[in-house]
Amino acid sequence: MEKICVVGLGYIGLPTAAMFAKTGYEVVGVDINENVINLLNNGEIQIKEVGLDDLVKKVVREGRLRGSITPETADLFIIAVPTPNYSNHTANLEYVKAAIKNILPYLKEGNTVIVESTIPPRTIDDIIAPIISIDGWNVGEDIFLAHCPERVLPGRILIELVENTRIVGGINEISSIKAAQKYSSFVTGEIIKTSAVTAEMSKLMENTYRDVNIALANELAKISDKLGINTLEVIDIANHHPRVNLHQPGPGVGGHCLAVDPYFIIEKAPNESPLINNARRINNSMPEFVVDHIEKIVEKKGKIAVFGLTYKGNIDDVRESPALDVIGLLQKKNFDLSIYDPYIRQEQVRFTLSTFDEAIHNADCILILTDHSKFKGLDEVKIHTKMRTPIIFDTKNHVQINSESIKYYNYGNLYKMSKKSLVVTT
Predict the structure, then answer these.
(1) Which of 115, 164, 202, 282 has its CA 20 to 30 A from that of 15?
(2) pLDDT surpasses 50 at 422
C-alpha cells in the first residue's frame, strides 16, 4: 500500500487526506496544531464541511488516516498549508517554505511532492525547487515536483474534489505525469497536465476573474445609488443578454481565494495589472459603503443587529470576511452591536455572539451581511415585537419579507435611503 503524507489539515488538506484514505492509501496528516491532531486521531474534525465528519470518522476507524505533529516517510507528499498576505498584500510563503524544509529529512528517491497551496507565479520554479535541490536532489529526476491547486467550493468540497477538472502543473513533464497518476485514483473529472507556472497562474486567474466581475457589480451599485437607479433590476435585465452575466453586489469580497489571490498577480507584475488592482480597491471599499448607509438609517449609539460573519452562506469560514470589516467600522463609530451567526462558534471570534432573540431585542436595524439559508425567512412576528424599529438592510439581497410594516432595504432600493429616514434613539 502506498503512503501519503499531507502537510496542513485545514479546509483543503483535511478533505484531501480523507479522500485519498477513502481510495485505499495509507495517509498521515500533519499539522502543527496539537488539538487538530488529537481530534483527528479520535475521528473528529475542527471544521464544518458537508459529509467530511462521517468520512473522517470512517477512514480513521479503518486505520487508513491518522494524524501526526511531524512528517513521516512516504511515497507522496502533499503541501496544503496557508499562504496569507502580509500587510502590504504580498504573499507570505513562510508556511510553504517551512513545510517543504520539514519534509526534506523524510524524502527518498522516487518521491512525488505536490504543492496544493495557492502560490504566486514562478514559486515552484524559483523557490520550492531550489530548496529541494540544495538538499542534494535532482528535481524532476530524483524527486518529482508539481503544483496542483485546489478549486473547490466550501459546502461541496467532497463532491468537487472528485468531479471537478484538476490542473496538474509539473516542474517537468514526468512530474506532471507522476502527480496526475495519484489524483486519477479518485478524480472523475478531466485531469489537465501543464507546466507549474501555467498551473499557478491559471488558479490565480480563476479567482481574479470572479473578483473583477464582483467589483463591476459593486461599482454599479455605487453608481446606481448616486443616480437613483434600481441596481438589481439593471442586473436582471442586462443578464437577459445571451453573452452577459453580471454578478451580484454585496458588502465586499471574502474568503482565502477571491480576496487574496489577485494580489499574488499584482505582486509579480504591478505595472501590468491596473484592472486587477482597481477591482481589489473597489471590493475593499464596500464595507465603508455599507456603513455610510447604516448612518443614514440609525443614529450613532443606536443598536444594530448584525446577521452573518462568514464570507459566504451556510459555512463556518470567516477568513477575510467583509463582515468583520463592517463590524470594526461600526464599533469605531460607537454603534451598539449585537452579532448573530448560527454557523459560528464563540471561540472563532473575539466579540460576543448573541442568539437571534438577543440580537434583535431593542434593535434599530438588522444588517444582513451573509446569505445563510436560515436568514431567508426571518420570523417577522418577533421582528415586530422585539425590535425598537423594524428595519432591515440586506447587503446580500437575500431575505424575503412579506410585511409592509417592516422597512426593507437592499441594493434594489438603496437609493431611497435619506436623512429623513433617520431613526432617533434615546
Answers:
(1) 202
(2) no
